[in-house]
């Protein structure tokens, strides 16, 4: 017994004398309103509320340890990037946007803009227009209505019980940001290029607003439902291709107008989803907590929602009766 006590006492003294780094998974007590940076393994999500403080998870190097830093030393981009990484690990890839997702559509938009003023490209697009549009004969004006169908479908699926990545409020904010971005940039481009429409003298042809609206909604639908059902997620692009064709067939736009509009619509939604976690930190953390709950739901406590009561007779100063207690 003395030997065991001596070993335990020696071990406790050793632990008490150890200073420096704190091992992964052990969080030191800190003052309220500090920021805890928990360096953790890549696949382990960590709850956000620890001692009512703000925590950020970063990848664990082979010889790394956990540390505590001052909030002022933590840059905003680090918070955003780590929240994005956590969302991807928890099954939400909607906010994940790499350089290629911006560079490729931006390059396509720039290439389509060359068709506005480059003579031999102008001639080529006019030849395409002549064969596809037939000078506006047999118009099919449904493109005025179906341009909104991808974004409407995203809400219809939600109300029919097919949940996407975000709740109703968050997805509405994301859609508003996408539409606002597209509307502002589209108006600026139309005012800058002042391209003449093929069927009138109106100089607001490039880029195509109808096509851009449809592709903006298609990418919105894809990002909300890609991790749920990929066929549903990509269905918006079928509508987008139909609207792009009809804008040329109805002689309302040149081919470069619809290509540029499609690229701009895609970019607008991608930008909105990319920047959302960087602006709405609190709502993004709430969304992450919902994803955590889906993976590891917290079991309900026994007795939750139940009704209980107790009763006992009493006698006091000549009075008597029953004392009851109701718990719900």
Describe the structure.
This protein is α+β, with helices and mostly antiparallel strands and 328 residues long. Helices cover 54% and strands 11% of the residues. The chain has 11 helices and 6 strands. The protein has helices spanning 2-17, 76-89, 100-113, 119-133, 143-146, 149-159, 168-193, 209-225, 230-249, 255-279, 281-295, and strands at residues 35-40, 49-50, 53-59, 67-69, 308-316, 319-327. The chain has a 4-stranded mixed sheet with strand order 2-3-1-4, covered by helices on one side. Strands 5-6 form a two-stranded antiparallel ribbon. A hairpin with a 2-residue loop joins strand 2 (49-50) and strand 3 (53-59). The longest helix is centred in the middle third of the chain and has 26 residues, at 168-193. The two termini are 51 Å apart.
């Amino acid at each position: 017994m003395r030997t065991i006590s001596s070993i335990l006492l020696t071990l406790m003294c050793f632990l008490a004398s150890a200073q420096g780094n704190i091992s992964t998974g052990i969080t030191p007590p800190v003052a309220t309103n500090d920021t805890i940076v928990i360096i953790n393994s890549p696949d382990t999500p960590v709850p956000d509320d620890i001692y009512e403080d703000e925590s950020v998870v970063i990848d664990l190097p082979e010889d790394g340890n956990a540390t505590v830093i001052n909030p002022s030393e933590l840059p905003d981009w680090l918070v955003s990037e780590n929240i994005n990484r956590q969302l991807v690990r928890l099954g939400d890839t909607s906010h994940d946007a790499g350089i290629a997702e911006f560079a490729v559509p931006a390059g396509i938009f720039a290439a389509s803009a060359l068709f506005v003023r480059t003579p031999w490209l102008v001639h080529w697009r006019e030849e395409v227009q002549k064969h596809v549009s037939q000078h506006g004969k047999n118009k099919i004006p449904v493109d005025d209505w179906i341009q909104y169908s991808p974004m409407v479908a995203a809400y219809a699926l939600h109300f029919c019980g097919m949940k996407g990545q975000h709740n109703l409020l968050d997805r509405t904010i994301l859609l508003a940001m996408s539409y606002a971005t597209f509307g502002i940039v589209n108006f600026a481009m139309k005012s800058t290029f002042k391209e003449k429409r093929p069927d009138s003298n109106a100089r607001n042809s490039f880029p195509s607003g109808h096509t851009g609206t449809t592709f903006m909604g298609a990418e919105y639908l894809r990002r909300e439902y890609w991790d749920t059902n990929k066929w549903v997620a990509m269905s918006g692009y079928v509508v987008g291709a139909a609207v792009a064709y009809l804008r040329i067939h109805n002689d309302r736009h040149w081919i470069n107008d619809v290509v540029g509009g499609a690229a701009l619509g895609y970019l607008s939604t991608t930008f909105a989803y990319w920047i959302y976690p960087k602006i709405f930190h609190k709502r993004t953390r709430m969304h992450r907590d919902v994803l955590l709950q889906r993976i590891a739901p917290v079991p309900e406590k026994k007795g939750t929602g139940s009704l209980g009561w107790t009763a006992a007779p009493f006698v006091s100063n000549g009075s008597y009766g029953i004392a009851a207690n109701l718990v719900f």
